[in-house]
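[#protein-structures] MJ: dropping Heme exporter protein D here for a structure pass
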Amino acid sequence: MNWSSSAEFFAMGGYGQYVWGSFGVAIVVLCAEWLLLRQRRLAALSQVKRQSILREEESR
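AK: finished. structure tokens for Heme exporter protein D:
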């Protein structure tokens, strides 16, 4: 398609709200996944560190 203005591009022939809305939802979901993954990683590292400390204390 050829658009003569940026407004026509963003309108996407009347389907702009669905197109840009789906991009928005996808970005929100990807950001949420990244944040949750980071949180799970930090929790796992913390758990491994705690277990390591407990093993050191048990071996003394």
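MJ: nice. The chain is about 85% helix and 0% strand.
AK: one more thing. Residues 28-59 form one domain.
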